[in-house]
Design a protein that fits this description.
The protein is an alpha/beta fold. 55% of the residues lie in helices and 12% in strands. The chain has one domain (7-215): Rossmann fold, CATH 3.40.50.300. The chain is built from eight helices and five strands. A five-stranded parallel beta sheet has the order 2-3-1-4-5, sandwiched between helices. The protein is globular.
Length: 216
């Protein structure tokens, strides 16, 4: 059992599922209920995370095989970010009894590097546990959407694609299947239909969070 107070919410799903919008909308809704909310993300929630995010995108997109980052190195960079993120931001905020909403946490590494890249999922889980000081999310909100729909959403943004967004549709499907497999029996996960409007997603999420807070 964790010793910190507060309430940690992880928003998970494949790219294009609507995670970032839900993070913002849910934070606003909770703040209107007089809760102190900290929004963050992985990678990029800390200064180190921003640097690691830039490294990952640059090296993953490299055409030089010697410069291209390996699958294990990719995960370990995410793990380094996660360790810094929890040590310097997440756990201190929870100790102040704040609500922390994170756009991705360790489950994303299980989905992307484990199911997507084919790395040892038990090893990923073990390193994640160590990096987060065994602090798990109190509630994970999983926005479920089919890979084709999410892929089209991302492409339509006309932004520079991240290294993961530029992956093949087959990779996206493996990651989506990974999330489905991980969450099919977990009681700490709220699964939402990613085709619903952001207003609907926020309303359902807010009610679930408030219900769990009342039971804490």
């Amino acid at each position: 059992m964790h010793t910190s107070k507060g309430f940690l919410i992880a928003i998970e799903g494949i790219d294009g599922s609507g995670k970032s919008s839900l993070v913002s909308n849910l934070a606003i809704a909770l703040e209107q209920k007089k809760h102190t909310v900290i929004k963050t993300k992985e990678p990029g929630g800390t200064g180190l995370g921003l640097e690691l995010r830039a490294i990952l995108n640059k090296q993953r997109n490299s055409n030089n095989i010697k410069d291209s980052i390996s699958e294990k190195a990719e995960f370990l960079l995410f793990a380094a970010d996660r360790a810094q993120h929890f040590k310097t931001l997440v756990i201190p905020a929870l100790d102040k009894n704040h609500i922390v909403i994170s756009d991705r946490t360790g489950d994303s590494s299980l989905a992307y590097q484990g199911y997507g890249r084919g790395l040892d999922r038990d090893m990923i889980q073990s390193i994640n546990t160590w990096a987060t000081e065994n602090r798990k999310a109190d509630l994970t909100i999983y926005i479920r959407i089919d890979a084709q729909t999410a892929y089209q959403r991302v492409i339509s943004r006309n932004k520079n694609l991240t290294s993961f967004e530029a992956e093949s549709l087959e990779f996206w499907k493996r990651v989506g299947n990974g999330f489905d497999e991980m969450y099919k029996k977990r009681e700490d996960v709220l699964t939402l239909d990613g085709t619903k409007t952001q207003e609907e997603l926020c309303t359902i999420s807010l009610q679930e969070v408030l219900n769990r807070l009342s039971q804490a």
